[in-house]
């Protein structure tokens, strides 16, 4: 009886391992508040997906880029990923400052104050990705849709802090993809 229970438990354990190995990894998105709390315990860089509900390219990037298993795995391991609705009406406290949400102006929503801050004077367009250090300092914001092949070297470049010592063109020329 003990042997058959052990065999059943052993088979169940390996069946679960096989199922989890076949399930593609997804990006574990956080709110800004959740990511900041986690960062206080275990510091990592931040990747902030700045999107709007009406943006078709934002949806395409979610579907094609962030769902690519190697991209999702790398983001989860090296960043706190945050989804940020650039037209949210919610106030957000970030870096000790309160940023007001979007308001409707003439039937159209204005960008959230924090989204404007992430663009730091650049023209605003969606999708965009803001990269921050572990200390919530801005590294930069990259506007526009990115394929998995386009974003992968940039993710490594920033996570490895190569942006501090090497030009991206030089880094990306020798980058070897980990995607299948």
Short recap of the structure:
The chain has a 4-stranded mixed beta sheet. It is 42% helix and 19% strand. It has helices spanning 2-22, 32-41, 56-65, 69-78, 113-119, 148-159, 168-173; strands at 45-51, 79-85, 92-94, 97-99, 104-105, 108-109, 128-132, 138-143.
List keywords for this structure.
alpha+beta; Glutaredoxin; 19% strand
Description:
With 180 residues, this protein is α+β, with helices and mostly antiparallel strands. It has one domain (26-173): Glutaredoxin (3-Layer(aba) Sandwich). 42% of the residues lie in helices and 19% in strands. Strands 2-1-7-8 form a 4-stranded mixed β-sheet. The protein has a two-stranded antiparallel sheet with strand order 3-4. It is globular, with a radius of gyration of 20 Å. Residues 6-20 have low confidence and may be disordered.
Physical arrangement of strands within the biggest beta sheet: 2-1-7-8
Look at the structure and give the CATH class: Alpha Beta
Secondary structure tally, helices = 7
What is the residue-averaged pLDDT?
88
**Class from secondary-structure proportions:** alpha+beta
N-to-C CA distance: 45 Å
CATH architecture: 3-Layer(aba) Sandwich
% residues in beta strands: 15-25%
Radius of gyration: 20 Å
Q: What ranges have pLDDT less than 50 throughout 5 or more consecutive residues?
A: 6-20
> Helicity level, as a percent range?
40-55%
Q: Overall 3D geometry? A: globular
Count of individual beta strands: 8
CATH superfamily: Glutaredoxin
Overall number of structural domains: 1
**In sequence order, what are the helices and strands, one letter per element?**
HHEHHEEEEEHEEHH
CATH topology: Glutaredoxin
How would you characterize the largest beta sheet? 4 strands, mixed
